[in-house]
Specification:
By secondary structure, this protein is an alpha+beta fold. It has 14 helices and 22 strands.
Length: 526
């Protein structure tokens, strides 16, 4: 046999075989030596898949392969080290981001681009005129509802990092027009002046004092640092002063600027590069005693937390805050001024909580992604969507829950089964969904949906929709609805123009068994 074309030797073959076997064995050894927590994806800010179990049920057997695969992807040996090596290659070798959720800017700055965030910030994906009008209508309805109960309100909006530091973004990222938030703010009439504060100009001014070790925003994160937060706090307090003249912000002399003991907001952890990808920041440490005491969350609301002043005076207001992640740096400053503060991390307006807690003021504290990730969905108790549905005579979709006809189609690992006079949806995980029967939206009319659904616990339902211009599923094209344990009657006005008739239902943020007893779509309008 000729060996003229052979380029390796037996010794080389042995080395390759050893390396190949080692690559197979090393993950197994790692799984035996290190605990699972060392490889857990919690640093990626998501809940890892649970250890799969097998129960003597059809549902358990049918979903076992999917659950095993999900668990394995989250915990296989050397997972964290391999992801870190890949991230290092992208960030330092290719000078690009290891994930499409993040852009690598100039000087290694991070810009978040999940859910088409950058496109909306730079004005490349604006709201339509009808969508802006729907938002203005929703905000007005909320304001009227609160005023009727003697409750004041304030919307405080934080700009995205791109709008504060456009010079640090990649060269191709150019601002083309107003962001979605700026579109809505421009449409509000002067009566809103006391009820809205947008802290963008203050952040642009604050960044002028930046130094390499003291930026106003986290270079590797998506939020402002303490200095930027303190500037926003002052502007929010100035607006609150118009509602409560006794309120005024603390002077900055009550705080000392010091190097941060930890990295704070950074994507380095999620890249598994926190040992090499570092940032220098400073924190504001109070020099005067603090009076706000953390009380913990509400027993039935895992996304809540409370602060209360020790020795509070009776005239100090009590406020309820609906917020997103921008509240993290603002909370220590704001909580010092109110008799009691209830912080609720959610974007939808919880009417039941407002009525039961009875605050003096409701503060809506969000980044401008609020108008990217949510849709203008009116609660039927603020706008009588139920009456609009009942008055609508044109039926677009009538669902038979006894037979599951026309069928709800399971997506991902979900299961759908008609039994006991209803259609049951079983979702093993929070991302599992069902595709609703398609309907044909009539031109010039508003579709109204009624869904009767039984939930095993308190959670948030999301109804996602598509348009002809954007025929894909995205979080920003979703309507959130809070569900309580037991039977819920949900009424929604699908007022978004250009609907293509496709709807996707995520029953809840938690996997479980949800029972659909009724589903119908009607249309009304010219």
């Amino acid at each position: 046999m000729s060996t003229a074309g052979r380029t390796s030797t037996p010794k080389h073959d042995i080395v390759l075989i050893v390396l190949f076997v080692a690559s197979l064995v090393a993950p197994v050894i790692d799984m035996c030596v290190r605990p699972m927590e060392a490889r857990t994806p919690t640093v990626e800010l998501r809940t890892p898949a649970p250890v799969p179990t097998l129960e003597p049920t059809l549902e358990s057997v049918a979903t076992l392969p999917v659950r095993v695969e999900s668990w394995w992807k989250d915990f296989f040996g050397l997972r964290d080290l391999l992801i870190g090596m890949r991230s290092y290659t992208y960030w330092y070798g290719l000078r690009s981001s290891p994930t499409p959720e993040v852009l690598r800017g100039k000087h290694g700055w991070v810009f978040f681009d999940g859910n088409e965030n950058i496109a909306c910030d730079r004005g490349a994906s604006p709201l339509s005129t009808q969508e802006v009008d729907a938002w203005v209508k929703l905000l007005g309805a909320r304001r009227a509802w609160l005023e009727a109960r003697g409750i004041k309100q304030l919307y405080a909006f934080v700009p995205s990092k791109l709008l504060v530091y456009p010079e640090e973004a990649p060269e191709w990222v150019k601002i083309l027009g107003p962001s979605r938030l700026e579109q809505v703010l421009a449409k509000l009439d002067p009566s809103w002046n006391a009820d809205v504060v947008y802290v963008k100009e203050g952040q642009l001014a604050e960044k002028q004092a930046d130094t390499p070790d003291d930026p106003a925003w986290f270079p590797l994160g998506t939020h402002f640092c303490d200095r930027g937060a303190f500037r926003a706090y002052g502007e929010i307090m100035a607006k609150l002063h118009e509602h409560f003249p006794s309120l005024s912000p603390e002077p900055k002399s009550n705080f000392k600027s010091m190097p941060a003991p930890r990295q704070g907001d950074t994507w380095a952890k999620r890249f598994y590069l926190d040992h090499v990808m570092l940032q220098s920041i400073k924190v504001l440490v109070p020099t005067a005693p603090r009076h706000a005491v953390a009380l913990g969350g509400l027993p039935d609301n895992p996304r809540s937390d409370q602060d209360r002043l020790d020795g509070a005076r009776g005239d100090e207001p009590r406020i309820l805050v609906f917020h997103d992640s921008n509240a993290e740096r603002l909370r220590p400053f704001l909580s010092e001024h109110f008799r009691e503060v209830l912080w609720i991390w959610r974007s939808d307006f919880d009417i039941d909580l407002v009525e039961s807690w009875k605050p003096d003021l409701v503060l809506f504290l969000f980044g401008d992604r609020f108008f990217l990730l949510t849709s203008p969905t009116l609660d039927p108790r603020i706008q009588d969507v139920k009456s609009d549905f009942d008055a609508a005579s044109e039926i677009l979709l009538s669902f038979d829950p006894v037979k599951n006809q026309p069928p709800l189609v399971p997506q991902e690992g979900a299961l759908v089964e008609p039994r006991d006079g209803a259609t049951w949806i079983w979702t093993p995980g929070a991302s599992d969904t069902v595709l609703l029967p398609r309907f044909e939206p009539p031109p010039g009319k508003t579709p109204y949906l009624h869904l009767s659904i039984d939930s095993p616990w308190e959670t948030d339902l999301h109804l996602m929709f598509q348009t002809h211009a954007e025929p894909s599923w995205a979080r920003r094209r979703a309507m959130p609805v809070g569900l309580h344990p037991g039977l819920n009657e949900v009424y929604l006005a699908l007022s978004t123009p250009d609907l293509n008739g496709a709807l996707l239902l995520r029953p809840g943020r938690r996997g479980g068994k949800y029972r659909v007893l009724a589903l119908e779509l009607r249309a009304a309008g010219e």
